[in-house]
Model the fold of this input.
Amino acid sequence: MDKQPTLRQAMDYLHTWAGVLFSVLLFLVFFMGTLSVFDKEIDRWMMPESRLPLPPAVSFDQAALPQLEKLAPRSKLWTVQYPNSREPLMTIGWLGKDGIESRRVDAAANAVLPQAGSKGGSGFFYPFHYSFHIKWMDLGYWLLALASVAMLVLLVSGVIVHRKIFADFFTFRPGKSMQRATLDLHNASSVLLLPFHFVITLSGLVVFLFIYMEAGMSVLYSASGGNIIKESVGFFTRPAAGEDARLAPVDAMVARARAAWGGGEVRRVIVRNPGDRNALVEVQRRPHDQVVNDNVSLTFDGVTGEVLDQQRLVPAMRVQRFFAGLHMLTFDHWGLRWMYFGMGLVSSLMIATGMLLWVEKRRVRQEKLGQASHRMVNAVAAAGTAGILLATLAMLVANKLLPAAMAGRAGAEQAVFFAAWALALCHAIARAFLVPGRDGLRCAWREQAWACAVLALLAVVSNGVVTGDHLFAALAQGRLAVAGTDLVLLATAVLAVAAGRRLGARAGRVPVAAPALGAGT
Amino acid sequence: MGVFGGFGLALCFMVGTAAAVTAAGWMGRADATITAGMLAFLVWTAAALGAFAARSARRAAAWGSGCAAGLALLGWICLHG
Done:
């Protein structure tokens, strides 16, 4: 009779196979999430026409209302996103035939800007982080849920399989064998940021609580009626009266809301049923000075300007919004923003080294037996990590080189991303199977690292040439979003060169078979 | 089984505990639903881990479906009883 595996063996099996199955998906989530930490700054880099100074004062009645009355006079819903320190543009939106449509407004000049030929960081990288751009039946959200639960399972099983969790905190031996160095890097990056990995994953699930647990909520609320959002947020609404009436000055309502909050910035103004006697104006506060992502919105009668309601969250909803704020960094704190960026990169590194470890642990045995699954996993790992970075950089270069007046430019940028990613996969598979021996495994990584270095440099140079905002000009003009993006791209190029050189140096050495290592050793 | 069964167990946990806590008058319905919903993600993770830690798949399935049925019954009684 077979001996039952111990808990540690069972968790080792789970950690290994859940890791290899979900690692590319998890890398995508973490890498795109890391980019999304600076999505607005990437927007400034990718949309040169939006590199405007923050307007000193913003008027709804002068900047937004005339545009909305002209563009969407019959709409049931208007939204106006106010400018802030990270986003100097005002965004006006309305409910059209095909959903919410929007335009960007220069609030200082009270002028609508032309449609951007790019989705930028907030339109491409950020939605990629939580939906993979798969909208069909919310499949993207559910893939994210699967990946998140897999991440939590990997974290717990990883802790259980560790024999020396404290020692791993301080262990990194880059000069040792490839397998040992990879294991050290995987362990150190996992253990060092274990609380971050756990909190960011769990809070990501909590953000989408109302999607993932919708079935349970329906059961709970179907028995006696009601609506959980109305109950938990205190959402005020009323139907349109069907009689025309003029909207009262919204700037006065904004001033009253500010006075009620005791200061603070406006995040968004929503007008429901504009032009109707029952019009409602909701003024939301930007939670720039608190972790809880609470808008503390005030709702006014759109015609009389009287306060009708103030949003009050029930305690559990405040906890949910706390997790949402913690995850989405809705507050202003540059130090923490950079920390999130750094920790996101370390998380991505942990996932990538986990995949490499799987390959290294099987390489010697599989090559002796003539098996090749480790080569396929290596190719997928290269394309799923270095290939994603390469595709991102290719998209940034395309953003600068595609003609400004090109029709469907934003779509073309996206197509460049996916084409570059597909090419990276083909390249990695070809290298894994056509180059014999151990170098075949490193070849794709090395070449893609060099390609990343070239593309990162090209992105910086092309931004300087095409927009005139080269690094020194951007720094001199105080355009820190542009300068910061350029500096991160230059750092990427340096790191990619270092990785390419190191992989090249290792390829030149006489290969020595490393002893097999357990995951927890 | 761990992932999909775990999700079913998490939903039953949410319905059962939220309905029971509301019926007992310890929390309002919205508070109980959101709290149970957030905790359900931990139940989902624990169920996936439990499925692999169990002595056999049959044993894991039996425990998981037993717990889910119990919680669903608790929820039904509290909502309709």
